[in-house]
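Section 5.1 Outputs to date
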Amino acid sequence: MSFLPRAVIGVAPALFLLVAGALLIQKYRPDAKSDAEVADPGVPLTADDEERMHLAVLKQETAVDVLDGRLTLAHAASRFLHWSTTSPRSIDYLRDHYVGATEEEKAVNQVISYARIHASRNAGRYTEAFARLEAEAGLLGESLPTAP
């Protein structure tokens, strides 16, 4: 799958910051509790947890691709909807947490949500791209099928 290398690259900085943060805490706050002491070691991640994390990374990458102009909003929404239908929990979340008359509209709004988060973290770079995306969402919303 072509998303995997970018997913790994996307996760690598977070892992680096996590490890570096833990080392700095140990150095400057030796009395601080470690993650192992705070987290419940008896509750490992389930396969379902790992799948949800993987889907979140794929969705974040897709939102970045839309902001960078490598994907259209319609294509990204199609991907989001496909990924959301992979489990009852994911499709229920889409249906319950996003506005729209159809699942397609809800998927568009989910893409916008992911893009908004990324754009807000990189405001200088994505201000114009996010404005373009919101305009595209308005146009796309007019062409989406409506619920009966």
